[in-house]
Every structure is written in C-alpha cells, then in structure tokens.
Amino acid sequence: MANRKIVDIAAVFIWVNSHRTHRGHRGHNDFSVFSVASVANRLLFLSAIFLFLFTPPVIAQTIRVNPTGVNVNVSGATTVFLTFGPVGNFRPAEGTWCGELIPATPDNGLKCDPATIFGTLPGRFNRSRSSGNLGFTDIMSIPPSVARRAYQAAQAGSVSSFFYVRRFINLGGGPDRGPGGPDEYVPVTCRLSGGGARTPFALTDVKVSFDTEAADNAIVFVAPGRKPPAIKARIAYNGTGRLRGRWELVLPGEQPPEDFDLLTEATLPAEQRGQQRRYTQISRFNLFLPPTGKYTLAGPDVTRLPTTLEGPYLVLLRVEATDDKEADSDLSALGVGAGVVHSGAVAGFPIPVLRYFVGSGQAGAPIQLRLLTPAENAQAAAGQPIDFNWTQASGAALYQLEIADQSGQVILSALLQPLTLNYRAPSWLLGTAAGAGLRWRVSALDQTGAKIAETPWRRLRLNARPSR
Amino acid sequence: MDGIFLKTSLQRSFRLLGFVLVMMSPAIASPAAERGPGASSQAPAKGLVVTANFTDQEVDASFAITLNLSRPLQASEGHLAVLIGQTDFTNLFTPSGNDLSYLPRILPLPEGESSVRVFLVTPSNEWRELAQLTLRVKTPAPAAASPKQPGDQAQTSEAGPAQTSTAKKYSFTPSLTLGMKSQMTERHFPDSNRPERPTFTDATLQASLKSEITNGWFSNQMQFDLVGSEFRKEALRFSALGETAPKVDLSSYLMQFQFSKAKFQAGHATFGTNRHLINGFGSRGLTLSIPLSNRSDLSVAALNGSSIVGWNNFFGLDRRKHQILSATLGFEFIGQRPGGLRLEAAALSGSLQPIAGFNQGVINDAEQSKGGSLRLLATDKAQRLKLEGGFTRNLFSNPSDPLLNQSQPVVPVKETTRSAYYLDTSYALLQNRKLSEKTTANLRLNYRLESVDPLFRSVAATTQADRFQHELEITGAVGEITATVSHQQFHDNLADIPSLLTTLSRRYVVVVSVPLASLAPVGTDGTDGANGRNHLSHWLPRLGYNMSRIHQFGRALPLNSGFNDPSQIPDQISENHDFSSEWQFQKWRVTYRFNRSFQDNRQQGRVLADLLNQIHGVILGLTPHTAFDLNFDLNVESAKSFETARVDRTLRAGLNANWRMTPRMTINVTASNTLAGDLDRRITRSRNTELDLQWSYQFTRGEAGWRKVQGQFFIRYADRYARTRDLMFGLDNLTSLKTLNSGINFVFF
Asked: With contact defined as beta carbons under 8 Å apart, do B485 and B547 qualify?
C-alpha cells in the first residue's frame, strides 16, 4: 500500500511539473521529472510527502490505466484500446475529454476542469466491458470535434494535449473501505499528432459496398447463376500496421451475427476474442497499411460467392487483432493480467455488413456469361486494335456488346451471332473517346429478343491519340 | 488567425490559378475542330460503290436489307462493316456474291429514320467510310406497340432527334421470391455457445418491380426492391430501430425521368466531382441534370446526409439537419471538343447529424458546412497535356450535440472558414511511339499538388485536413509491360503552431507488371492462338511487383504539448514488398503471392519495436468439367516482433467445390482450417475449422411469364469448431456448433 501511495504522489508531481512546464516555461524543453528541481517543486514534493504521511489511506487511488498517454489524430477521429484496473468495488461511469485537470478532492485522482470540457464519450461509441481479473476494457473513440476543440485551444496558446478521464463510482463494501467512499478519476493524456506512425492503429471509418454502376450499394439483387458486383471496403484509419482478417458469408437459413460478432477482434478483451461466432470463410486477407490514413480493401473474388441457391446472403468483413506497439495495453502493469494485449485494428463500431439476395432467375442450368478481356480497368494501347472477348451463355440467340462513355451514353453497340464471342472495335473508336474512360458489357438475348443475361459493366481506359 | 489563413490561402490560390492558366494556354490555342466517329480522311477504295434496296422508300421492321457492291471485294482490301445508327450489324449480314443481306429474324429494324453507314475495314483495321444511306422504318400504331419490342436496340442505337421522337418502349418486370428456411437441429459446446434459437422456421420474401417507358422525347425507368423476413433481427433496419423495425422493407429504389436531354432521378444516387467540396457523395435523394446549351450544363442535388434504406424518409429529405444540397454549373469553352477546356462551379450547403450510413461504421459528429468550389479541366487536342485543378473555400462548424455534451457546459467549436486546392497535371513524354510493328511505348509524367488548410472540412467529401503534399510520378508502358515510379512528400501543421507536432513523410512507390508471354518470341511456324505466340508462352506467368517505402518522422519535440519523451515522436520507416505471379489455362489457374512488410522504428526508446511480416499465398483453381469447379487456397503467414522476440504463424487451408450433378441438382462443399500460434514458446495456439455441405435441387412449373414458378429446395450441414489456448492469459476456450438447416424457395415470374 505504501508503495502504491508513493507512486500516486509521484504521478501527481509529474502532472504538476508537466503543466508547470507547459504553462510558464514555453522555451524550456525538459523531459526529466527531477531535473527541474526548482525550490517550488521541492516544497511541493515535501508537502506531498507530508500529506502522504498524515492523511487517511482512503484517498489513495487504486485504479490505473494502460496506456497512460497516446498520440491522437488532430484532424480526425481516434480510437484507442485502454485497460483500467483493478476496478474492485467500483463501477465505471462516464468518460470525459477536457483541456485541463484539477484535483478531484474529495474524490481520488484528477478530474476535468469544468471550464475546459470538450465532450463526453457518446453512448453509441461506448464499447467498454469488464475483462479478466478486475480489469475494465475501454474503447476510447474520440470524435473529430473533440480534437478540433483541442486544436483551437492550442491555437489560442493553451497546451496542445488534452485528457480523457474515466470516472469510477465507489460502490463501497470492499475489505478496506466503507460504503460510499470516494469515487476515482483516472486520466489518459491525448497528445495531438498527425495521426500517422506512433498513433494506435485503429479503424475510424469503414464503408463496405458493392461497386455497382450507378452508386455504391449495400444491397443488391442477383439472379441465380449470376455473380454479384465487385465488393470493396473504403477504410479510414490512424496509425499503421497489418490489416488482417477474413471475408465470411452468412448463408440463407443461418442465424445472423450479433453486434458482438461484428466488432473487430481488437475491440474485445483478450478472453472474449475467441467467442465471436464464425461463418463460412470465403477468403483471407493480410495487408500492410502505410501511415497515410486511407485504404480501399478489395473484396473477395465474387466468383467465389455462391449464387445458385435463392435467398439472403450476408457478406462479413472480419478483422483480426494484430501486433501494434502503439495499441498495446499492458495488463501486468495494472495487476489485472499477466501480459500485453495486442489491439492493432481496433474500431469503435461494429463493421457493417453487405447483403445480396439471390432470386427471380432462370430455370435450368445457370447462365455463365462473363467478360474475359480486356480486363477491368485495362488500358487499351493506342495503335493496337481493341478486341472484346466474353464467354458463351447457354440459350443465347444473339449477343449485344455495348460500349458507353463515362456519362453512361452508349456510343457504340454491336450485335453478334451466338457462336461469335469476340468483337474488334472500329479504329475510330479511339479517336472518339481518346484519353477518356469507357465502359463495356455484353448481354445475351434469346430467340424473342429478350435479355436473358447481362454482365456488369467493365471499365476500359483509352490511350490518347488523335483520330485519323 | 482566420485572416492569416485567408490571406495565405488567397495568395496560394492566385499563384495556382496563374500557373493553371499558363499551363492551359497550349490547349486553348490548339484548333478545336474535330471529326466525328467514322469520318475518314482517306479516300475510299477505288471504284467501289455501295447501293441498297431500301433507299427512297419506307420499309417494315422485318424488311430484308440488301447492300450491293459495284465490284467484288479483294481479300487484300479487307471486309465491309455495316452500322445502323450506332449499332454494328456486320456480323448478322450474309455475303452472297457482290451482295450483303440481313433478314431481321430476332430483332426488328429500329423504327423511324436511321443512318446506315458502310465501311471498308482494311486488314490493319482502318475503317474507311464508303457510303452513308438513310433507312426509314415504318412506325407501328401505338396499340401495336409490344413489350417485346427490342428496346435494347432502340436504346443503344443512339438515334438523333428524328429517330428518338418515334422510338417507343414499354416494359414491366415484376419478380417475387418467397422462402421458408429452418434450422432443424443443432449441437453446441459449451452451453454458453448455445444459439439464441436452437431451432426455428422463418418465412422470407424478396421482390422487385422494374418498369421502363420510352416514348419519343420522354423516358422513364423505375425499380423498387423489397426484402422481408419473419425473424425481426433479420429486418433491414433492426440495428437502427430494434423491435420496431418493419419486417418487410424497401431495400432500394430508383426512379428516373428523362425529358429530352434533361434527367431527373429520385432514389439512390451519387453526386459531385469536386474533390474537396462534394465528391462522389452517394445517398438517397433527388438529382436533376439539365443541359442549358451546347456548352453549359447544370446539375442539382438534394440528398440525405447518409445512405439509408426503408420506407421512411422516402425521398431522403425529411430531416433538414441531415441533408446535403448542392449544385454544379459546367461550361465547355471548346464546344467541338468536350473536356478540352471545362470549368465547373459548385456550391454546397449541408448539415449532418451523428448518424452512420446503412453500410458504414464511423466515429462522427454533428457537422455543418457551406462552401463553393471551382474546378478546371483542360487537355490539348492530342491529349498529351492534361490539367485538372480545383479550389474550394468552405465554412464549417460543429453544432451543439446533446449526445456529446450530455448536459455539461462544453467548450464550443469556433466556426472556421478554410481553403483547399489541388492541381493534377500530366504530360505524355512518349505517346504511342512505335518500337516495332506490334510494340508501342508510352511514357507519362504526372505531378500532383494538394493543400488542405488546418480544420478544413466539408460534410460531403473525405479530406485529410492540415496537409500539404507533392507527388511526382512517371508511368510507362512498353507493349504490355507497365511500370510506375512515384515519389510523394507531405507534411502537416501548416499553421506552424509551436505546440503541435509537425510530421513529415517521404514515400516512394514502384509498381511493375510484366506478362512474360508478351516477351516470348512469336512462333516461326505461323501463329498459335489469338496472340500468335508459341505453345510455351502459355506457361509463362503474368508477374507483378509492388514496392512502397515510407519514412514518417516528427520534426522536433513540440513545446507545451504533452510530449515529454522522444519515444513519443514518430520516426518510422515502413517497407512493403508485394510479388505476384499468375498462370491461366483453359481448365486451371494458379496464383502465387508473396508479401513482406517491415516496420522499422528509429526513435529513441523504440529502436527495437520493429515488426516483420511475411506471407505466402497460393490459389489453385480447377475446372475439369463445365459441371465441376474447385478452388484450393493455402496461406502461410508469419509475424515477427523483434522487441519480444516472438514469431506468430498462421496457416490456413481452404477448399471450395461446386458440382452441378444435373442441370437441377448441385452439391457445394466449403471447408477451411486455420492454425495459429507462436512458434518458439508455444504460449498461444488456436485452431478454427469450418465445414459446409449443401445439396440443392431446382424445379420449375409453368412455362413463362405469370404462370411460371421456379422453386428450389436445399439442405445444409454446417460444422464450426474453434479452440484457443493462451498460457499468458490462462485461456482455454473450446467452442463448437453443428447445425442442420433446410429451406425451400419459390420464385414467381
């Protein structure tokens, strides 16, 4: 207990010294606690020792946090995995961001100065949960407006760092404290940075969609045997690290996932990570994300997505925890566990799901009309003929190739007999749309002229060349 | 401070605009004339005259067209091509002596007046126009208009006003799928892994309604998609509305009305091309685009603040505090060459509540912004020089958010007006330079500049504020071999606030793609296949290599900042190498991928905090028969932490097979097994195994249209097994779940 008190007093001393440095000694750049051994500091330290010796043990703060300080994104959102503990007979209450701290007397610790409050953790981002041996896992999701307030305070001359303070309500009844004892306030320092390297690797905005012609859709209808449009996930993130995980599929008839299952693995305490429900695995990904803040993750190969069975399908983006030094939370430092929890790719929200519905298709064998070449987004070499190729579709009496410009206007089409599975574009096509992007697709028509199959649009880039 | 930003922004903007104008001058000065498609500067083949049997008369839609050549065409001259409107019918014409004829059996001729152009296509694929004729096809009476009218033909024939004024099309396509799914039995371990519903039977529904009307200058397309489930948790909006979510809901809809060239849309739409103001913003709402003249156009949009589904807020405009209003006015300075020099002015007023889109997870806020933007695009006639630049000025604020304030006095966010601009330029140093008969070379130099002020934010664009960046890039191609090399520099803290950390970044990227088959010598004994290369070339893979290196570091320890240790200042070099090779054959394909990344921390106190990741991945795809396909994946991943001297390995094998036993019966198998753990100390071990076996049978009753019912029955066994052991945390979790599901679906129409 005495050691704990000394640590607490030292922490108060560090905080006071730090803020003294920030406020009054702008030009003084000193990191060491004890090298700034001014007379005032010594007196303060002696006073603290005096207080330690003559105050009752109830004021000692027992709950600590790891990590105690993090770099956060000044121009956007930030999410950090924090562990508090040991929480004992305390119940976690609100988490508040603020510019300055004041002693929480008569409670324990340091709480927010009411004049500098930047906000309180909104309920929609509160993913906190009890964990392990008296631990409390908190996912601190800082909305951009909080960092904005901190930036504007720094612009006005204040310290650029700010604080996140979790309050723990004393429930009493513990072995060493009576009922209704003091609450505890536990601060975490948030240092403003660019949100790149040295900031915990976290996902702050994830948007998954089908890459359809008109817009990015979350829901598509697919005829049996046809393939859904390509899938992509646009991700905004802080820090840098490996993005590792799986694309999974919830098949018709399966129980849908709960929010718990949709959280990234790093958002959960270590012992709960294995309890997320798994579904049919389509493919796996493991990529390095550089400290640049944005990435578009390509979805699974859509030819691997089943479309023979009618019904609703859910495509899940499952993100696994990775090793990221900045996102580590050391449980042993808090006495609530034996090691370090790795929390790379934490996110303060469930990852959204994609839906596709298979139905209203053709009877009999599935139609397998697919585009072959040019590949998606291929660049047509100027001076070379452009040959379009596709696969055969059962039941086709005619094929119709359509070539459209970027506005969707069809600039050329061709009708071809069922045994013809290719088309060479006219030489003047390049001159018509040189340097621009085109899209092309193929439809299969039956004997009545009705469309029985149609491929998605595929993009084609044209090299510039004057028309001849 | 705002004044300083305004001044510096304006100075930068003037410099930018001046630079843009100087760079644009060649494009403006270049002649604007351009020939349309099909125009040929070369003389037609000598003595070759084309006549037709449909000139000077109005014909039926089933009229057999015959084209007559004045003399036989020599093989060395090439062949003929026939375009009716914008549709190439060549492949449907039958040659006979000096004649070419086409009898419309499946698709009738396009109604109204169409141009028929006959080309001579030389062996080198040069299209030279021989004749342009006019085809007049009788328009049937309105009552005779049938849904079977080949509307696609009319739609794609890109007719002029004379033709579109008579084109008609009506179609109405409903579809309905009703299903019943059930879980007949399940087994689980332990009890905590018990599913919420061990057994169940649910009804499901999906329906869509499409209609299309084209009548002269007016056209309309509509589509409504509905989904439903008896189980409330499967309702589309369960996560937002909980138990009040409707079980049958609108998943998406689109109504499009076109009046001549003006287009009005209601439903899910995407709007905006201004990078910093509104850029590809997709949501439900209304959009309108009107060509004001041959050179100018106007687009207007009113959209919901985030993507939504459901019946409520049908037009997306119910919540004033959660919507985007925007308009873009575009003007083409060179009428004959759209895109040659185009200026767009856009304005936006938007307000967002802290609501995530339907397919989005995000840490967000209540936000408001108003702004304007200019965007300029220019190219010279040869497309050698391309320029795109934009400047945006925006007013942003965070209105009071009760969910963030929670009844406390919160420091208000000051309203800020900030600027952003960008310039993308590129110049083709080599453009289609012929190296040999079949090989050309291209080399393009790109330069990109972007500056976004601190605190800049528009509600309809994703922008990283407080950043200034340059990028220089060279892209080249020799034949099918392509390569890109780029260097990028960016930094933040543009306002030079002393208490803020300034981070600098330097990034290099190299991307190379080499289809080795393109390097193989052409067979001496003639051609082999479409590419004219020898047999061995099939065995040569397509290779790809991608390298990126980024060094990100803090300029110095900022004062008055909370940074009190050099280890808190970033100084990291990250390298990522990605190599891939792909073999493609008719019945099988193989892909191998290797990835290596190394994060090297260099700041004091973190020198050892380095991470090395390596991945080997193999995908094998087999299609030995049209009724059977199989995919096999193997992934070996390793992650080494130098600080903890620990290496974690992941090994995953996956299998997916589809066997269409008969046209109606299919068996699917999906299996995967993932093993993970640390190599040396064996502190953590985990194993995940998933297996799915599914049999489905399809049946049909009725023939077509309203009488047709298609059904499908399935039965599936799924087995999930997971075991995680962690000696450090004292964990030993084993969960397993086996389920047997079945279902039946009926598809109507």
From this structure: no
Distances in whole angstroms, Cα of residue B232 to Cα of each of A22, B241, B744: 55, 10, 20
Residue B501: Cβ-neighbour burial (10 angstroms; 0-12, 13-18, 19+): buried
Beta strand A90-98 pairing with A117-120 = antiparallel
pLDDT score of B17 more than 80 = no
Q: A410, B158 in Cβ contact below 8 A? A: yes
Model confidence over B689-717: pLDDT tens digits?
999 999 999 887 765 555 567 888 999 99
d(CA A148, CA A165): 18
Spatial separation of the C-alpha atoms in residues A320 and A298, rounded to whole Å: 17
**pLDDT at B522 (0 to 100):** 58
Rounded distance, CA A429 to CA A385, Å? 10
Answer whether A359 sits within 8 Å of B177, measured CB to CB: yes
- Of A337 and B158, the structure prediction assigns the larger pLDDT to A337
CA distance A268 to A261: 10
pTM across the whole model: 0.77
Tell me the ipTM for this assembly.
Answer: 0.78
Structure tokens that stand for B450 in this block: 């972007």
pLDDT at position A21? 38
| Alpha carbon distance A347, A264 (integer Å) | 6
- Does the pLDDT of residue B1 top 50, yes or no? no
Please write the tens of the pLDDT for every residue from A335-379: 998 889 999 999 999 999 999 998 754 333 344 677 877 877 777
Contact between A352 and A87 under an 8 Å Cβ cutoff? The reply is no
B129 touches A: beta carbon within 8 Å: no
- CA A322 vs CA A200, A295, A344, A349, B51: distances in Å: 11, 17, 5, 18, 73
Q: What residues in A contact B563, CB-CB < 8 Å?
A: 161, 191
Average pLDDT over residues A190-214: 90
For B73, the 3-state DSSP assignment is: coil
More confident site: B375 or A19: B375
Interface residue A408 vs chain B (CB under 8 A): no
HSE-CB for B66 with a 13 A CA cutoff: 6
User: Using an 8 Å Cβ cutoff, are A305 and A249 in contact?
Assistant: yes
Which one of A281, A291, A464 has the shortest CB-CB distance to B428? A464
**pLDDT of B104:** 85
Enumerate the β-bridge partners of residue A439.
A404, A459
Q: Cα separation of A248 and A281, whole Å?
A: 4
Tell me: the pLDDT tens digits for B557-591? 998 898 988 999 999 999 999 999 999 887 888 99
Among B362, B714, B748, the strongest candidate for a mutation testing the A interface, having the largest count of A CBs within 10 A, is B362
Q: Is B413–A308 a contact, with Cβ atoms under 8 angstroms apart? A: no
Q: State the angle between helix axes of A39-54 and A2-24 in degrees (0 to 180), rounded to the nearest 10.
A: 150
Structure tokens of B124?
A: 């080198």
* pLDDT, mean of residues B439-453: 94
Shortest distance between the Cα of A76 and any Cα of chain B, in A, equals: 8
- Please check whether residue B65 is in contact with residue B101, taking contact to mean a CB–CB distance below 8 angstroms: yes
Please say whether the beta carbons of A55 and A16 come within 8 A: no
Which of A213, A224, A242, A396 has the alpha carbon at shortest distance from A319? Answer: A242
Return the minimum-mean-pLDDT range out of B217-221, B366-370, B417-421: B217-221
Residues in a beta bridge with B660: B666
CB contact under 8 A, B379 and A435: yes
- B486 in A contact zone (CB under 8 Å): no
Q: Does B593 touch chain A (CB under 8 A)?
A: no
- Choose from B359, B484, B596, B619 for mutation: most chain A CBs within 10 A: B359
Note whether A203 and A237 are within 8 A (CB).
yes
